[in-house]
């Protein structure tokens, strides 16, 4: 059975994920497992944490079959304590397929300017 938990105000994705992993796998391993999990699924977490997005155009790749169904989307997201601007590869169903680049900022205003400058 799947269990969903909404992240309460003031808690970060990392803290909630760490706590859940500690309950499942024991004391002391939660933070390390959470960091590895976030790293492996970075594009999905960023996409789900987005606050705003901007379509940049189609994503064309000679390597990927069906790449004509993919788009490049710039996002502003809050993941943990950092504001992030990232360019993701997104399919027509709204699922993240990859991360093309990411920059982190201390302030939302800095991140918003960076997002506006992407083109």
Distance between the termini: 43 Å
Low-confidence residue ranges: 1-10
| Global outline | flat
* Radius of gyration, taken over Cα atoms and rounded to an integer in Å: 16 Å
Number of domains: 2
Beta strand count: 4
Strand order of the largest sheet: 1-2-3-4
What percent of the residues sit in helical stretches (DSSP H or I)?
25-40%
Sketch the major β-sheet. Answer: 4 strands, antiparallel
Short description:
With about 120 residues, the chain is α+β, with helices and mostly antiparallel strands. The protein has helices spanning about 15-25, 30-40, 40-50, 110-115, and strands at about 50-60, 70-80, 80-90, 95-105. Residues about 1-10 have low confidence and may be disordered.
How would you characterize the overall build of this protein?
By secondary structure, this protein is α+β, with helices and mostly antiparallel strands. It has two domains: 10-40, no CATH class; 51-117, no CATH class. The protein has helices at residues 13-25, 30-40, 42-48, 108-117; strands spanning 50-58, 70-79, 82-91, 96-105. α1 crosses α2. The protein is flat, with a radius of gyration of 16 Å. It starts with 12 loop residues before the first helix and ends with a helix. 20% of the residues are buried.
Give descriptors for this structure.
single chain; 119 residues; alpha+beta; 4-stranded antiparallel β-sheet; 4 strands
Topology diagram in text:
Layout (H helix, E strand, L loop, with lengths): L12 H13 L4 H11 L1 H7 L1 E9 L11 E10 L2 E10 L4 E10 L2 H10 L2
Antiparallel strand pairs: 1-2, 2-3, 3-4
Helix pairs in contact: 1-2
């Amino acid at each position: 059975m799947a269990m969903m938990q909404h992240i309460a105000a003031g808690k970060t994705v990392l803290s909630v994920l760490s706590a859940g992993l500690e309950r499942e796998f024991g004391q002391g391993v939660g933070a390390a497992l959470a960091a590895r999990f976030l790293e492996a699924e970075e594009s999905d977490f960023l996409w789900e944490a987005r606050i705003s997005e901007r379509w940049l155009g189609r994503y064309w790749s000679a390597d990927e079959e069906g790449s004509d169904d993919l788009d490049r989307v710039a996002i502003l997201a809050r993941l943990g304590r950092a504001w992030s601007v990232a360019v993701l590869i997104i399919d027509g169903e709204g699922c993240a397929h990859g991360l093309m680049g990411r920059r982190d900022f201390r302030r939302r205003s800095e991140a918003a300017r960076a997002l506006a400058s992407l083109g």
